Amino acid sequence: MPVALTSGDPAGIGPEIAVAARLALGAEVPFFYIGDPAHLPEGTALAEIAAPAEALLVAPDTLPVLVQEFAAPARPGTLDPANAAGTIAAIRRAVELVRDGQASAVCTNPIHKKALKDGADFPYPGHTEFLAALAGIDRVVMMLASDALRVVPVTIHIPLSEVTAALTPELLEETLRITHAGLIRDFGIAAPRIAVAGLNPHAGEGGAMGHEESTLIAPVLDRLRAEGMELSGPASADTMFHAPARARYDAAVAMYHDQALIPIKTLDFDRGVNVTLGLPFVRTSPDHGTALDIAGQGVASASSLVEALRMAHRMGRNRRQAA
User: Fold this and answer.
1) Annotated binding-site positions for substrate
2) Domains in the chain, start-ordered, CATH in brackets?
């Protein structure tokens, strides 16, 4: 089954990198684009399809497009709230197609949250929360993944000053359980090895630099180890991400946003993929935003989207085999 790729905000780089990804991948990854054909770059070789299965019949150098109507033309670099409803509808449609068994996974191009709020009163902080709502679940986990590293932050888009209050045993345990299950189901790793970072420098250094490691993190790890999970840590984050350390685990769980994202963006900036674990369907996304400043100039890199499509295809296959 093909992957469903949403348009994202048509003022951003989504339409042009979708075309570039098709040319880069050819027949390697079957996918189709949900959006307005008029929003694609001039001269794009495209084929309008009526159903996802038709994407498999389209030539490798031609983009299969499942038409989604938008209210306004796309002007690269200039947001138009009139297109918010179409952007949201493309996401909703992709989810419906995957849940109906017509597509293997959802891959989402970047959205612009303010444009969605201004144009459609979008009530969600972003893609992840909207997808969780469509799935009817309360808790999902964000993973950033590449060939070099998979990493999960327990707390995400909150000020550093609020991390300690937000970091609870329940949140850490839930994150670890969802990560462990996702590695098995979506990545095909039968017995995942997960490394867990401490919160403080040197993992608290025996209490000299903080006590969260001993009072909060370690008890959760001990409890889950007793159930059979292979967990290491809490470890000092500054020694977790060099090559020999990375060879000892399948994913790292970090306590806050930058502790997780700085390593992967340093190691593999252009090919990192945003993965949402815990959904009843596979979802990936390139690890960048709409890039309005370069939209329409023909300079945007499709590398992250190419990797997101590849990963969505593999994860969809793994999930079907595990079913």
Assistant:
1) 127-128, 265, 274, 283
2) 1-141+270-323 (3.40.718.10), 148-267 (3.40.718.10)
